Amino acid sequence: MTDKLDESGRRLIHRRTVECQGFLRADGLWDIEGRLSDSKTHPVTLAEGRAVETGQTYHGMWIRLTLNDDFIVQDVQVTMPDVPTSQCRGAMPGYQKLIGERIGPGFSRRIKELFGGIGGCVHLTELLLPIATTAFQTIPMARSLVAPRTPADVDAYRNARGALLNTCHALREDSPIAVFLKD
User: So which domain of life are we looking at (predicted)?
Assistant: First the structure.
């Protein structure tokens, strides 16, 4: 194994960029945003005949989830400034179904139930997964920015860490790291 991938003998054809950010709002809620963009290194013509030039974004979409400290969705904002077809934006209103949902165990299954198949946009739905992990990277550790830590904050942080147990190889129950997730 190396720390670098071999990049010889290849040519970039497609670029997908996914960026997620977590923000603390003035009202104490959290905005977790995800942005996805797709572009090509060559011109293409899309299904409805729209020409896309080299480097031009043809999937450009954002989702913002406003969460409370318990990871419950308070508000959803979706925008799709760059889409390949005129039909794509029709999926946007459906994401309001996320209001009241909790990001936690079972969230990925729930978003598939709500938005799988024709119930949503595959790109927006896939973007919800890194948004969820961004929420877990943002909220528990940043609570001390809002107010001094309380026993409830410590419990919430432990619960968030405990939710990570057995979610990957490094965080498996018999891993040396597991002790940090359990205490």
Answer: Bacteria
- The yes-or-no verdict on residue 183 having pLDDT over 90 is no
Structure tokens at 140: 């528990």
- Residue type at 54 in one-letter notation: T
Residue with tokens 């946007």: 92
* Residues with Cβ within 8 Å of residue 142, at least 6 apart in sequence: 22, 24
Q: Which two tokens stand for residue 99?
A: 């209001």
DSSP symbol at 12: -
Rounded to whole angstroms, the Cα distance separating 20 from 157 reads: 21
Query: Has this prediction a pTM greater than 0.85?
Result: no
CA torsion 134-135-138-144 (nearest 10°) is -170
Name 24's Cβ contacts closer than 8 Å, sequence gap at least 6: 30, 138, 142, 145, 146
Residue 127 structure tokens: 């973007």
Instruction: Give the number of other CB atoms < 10 A from CB of residue 147.
Output: 9
Residue length of the chain: 183
Q: What is the mean pLDDT of the chain?
A: 89
The string of pLDDT tens digits covering residues 89-142 is 999 999 999 999 999 999 999 999 999 999 999 999 999 999 999 999 999 878
Predicted confidence (pLDDT) per residue in 148-167, tens digit: 666 665 666 566 666 667 77
